[in-house]
Specification:
Blueprint (H helix, E strand, L loop, with lengths): L1 E7 L23 H6 L1 H10 L1 E7 L8 H8 L8 H29 L9 H9 L8 E2 L2 E2 L1 H15 L2 H8 L10 H5 L2 H4 L8 H6 L7 E8 L2 E8 L18 E7 L15 H13 L8 E7 L1 H8 L18 H13 L10 E5 L5 H18 L1 H6 L1
Parallel strand pairs: 2-6, 2-7, 7-8, 8-9
Antiparallel strand pairs: 1-5, 3-4, 5-6
Helix pairs in contact: 4-6, 4-7, 5-6
Length: about 375
């Protein structure tokens, strides 16, 4: 498989070259200038191109963990020291500081008292963190800055008031990986800390604009287009609709009791269903394969033991504490949003993004599905 990644400027329409560390992108597909020199080869490339659109409610979605996992889990490809260091500063350190700020803010708004009143000063310090500072460039937090905040973060995470706020996290938007990193502060505080593969898969970096990933499977060129899922980013989606072959629609299966970060009122699953309904009934996609990813199965399995989905979706029938019943309901919710049931089948996969083997098997099936659905067109061309 050949893989390359390049960001696209959504406003200018140009495609600036992206720098790659060793092992990240082994080969580039034919450049526009090379295609221009051979118009016939260029036309064949465009006709054979399989364009995959990556959509869905994001909140804090970056290049999704499952996408990162697929691109990085091929033999001979691994995270370089340079890319690990980037994720340490850009993903993990910033995730921790942002997560603690959300918890401190939620504690105050939910009127939860401090376990130790002395932690008010630690809370004030974290809330005063300046994202515009010279040491914080494009979301990157340098090691010395993080270590300066680490004692305050450690004290806050140990406070019963913050823990109480965390227990009520369904009432506000908090990244699922925040607890994982806060539980591992000793590791993160080491001077020579480099993220493990699991650390990287759990890190979140918001998608801004449009990002394209070019790769090749069985001599068939693929282009995966990833756009941000926040409400402010969705206006750019229409720019990517042209010549789409398949849509991968991402949903967090465990968020049926959570609300949007944007308004703190709208149910996240309801929002995903509304977006899906708009996409799946768009005439532009009448002949497009749609693959539904219901991610975070591990969190869903844990949640259904404690939370009844029926409290949020009264139409649910079955055992709210049975994972199979809840999963069937979720799939049916999305399937019934499609008005024309004669369209191509709706494929679905329940995934756990940090489970390497699960993602490898799912993506193998997805690739086979996409290739199979487009086999006739590819052969005719």
């Amino acid at each position: 498989m050949r893989i390359s990644c390049r960001p696209r400027s959504a406003l200018s329409g140009c495609f600036p070259a992206a720098s790659h560390s060793s092992g990240e992108a082994e080969q580039q597909p034919a450049s526009p200038s090379e295609i221009d020199k051979s118009p016939q080869a260029g036309r064949r490339y465009v006709k054979r191109l399989v364009k995959i659109l990556l959509l869905g409610l994001a909140g804090e979605r970056a290049s999704p963990p499952l996408l990162k996992q697929d691109l990085r889990s091929n033999p001979g490809q691994d995270w370089t020291a340079r890319s690990r260091e980037e994720f340490r500063r850009h993903g993990i350190y910033s995730n921790v500081i942002k997560g603690v700020r959300v918890l401190v803010d939620a504690r105050e708004k939910l009127h939860i008292p401090w376990g130790d009143p002395a932690n008010q000063s630690n809370g004030d310090k974290v809330m005063a963190f300046d994202t515009r500072a010279v040491t914080v460039v494009q979301g990157m937090v340098e090691t010395n800055v993080f270590l300066d905040y680490l004692p305050a973060i450690r004290a806050l995470w140990a406070d019963s008031g913050i823990q109480h706020a965390y227990d009520r996290r369904r009432e506000f938007q908090l990244g699922e990986s925040v607890k994982y990193f806060l539980d591992n502060l000793d590791k993160l505080g080491e001077q020579d800390y480099l993220p493990s593969q699991q650390d990287i898969l759990l890190a979140r970096r918001p998608t801004k604009g449009i990002h394209e990933y070019d790769f090749e499977i069985k001599n068939v060129p693929f282009k995966m287009v990833d756009v941000g899922g926040q409400r402010s980013e969705r206006k750019r989606w229409f720019e990517c609709f042209d010549s789409v072959t398949s849509i991968l629609f991402l949903v967090s299966s465990s968020e049926f009791d959570q609300v949007l970060m944007e308004d703190r009122q709208t149910n996240r699953l309801t929002e995903s269903l509304n977006i899906f309904e708009t996409i799946v009934n768009n005439r532009v996609f009448s002949n497009v394969s749609i693959i539904l990813f219901l991610n975070k199965t591990d969190l869903l399995e844990e949640k259904v033991q404690k939370v009844s989905i029926k409290d949020y979706f009264p139409e649910f029938e079955g055992d709210p504490h049975c994972l199979t019943d809840v999963q069937k309901f979720l799939v049916d919710c999305f399937r019934t949003k499609r008005r024309d049931q004669q369209q191509k089948p709706l494929y679905h996969h329940f995934t756990t993004a940090i489970n390497t083997e699960n993602i490898r098997l799912v993506f193998r099936d997805v690739k086979d599905t996409i290739l199979h659905d487009n086999l006739k067109q590819l052969m005719l061309q």
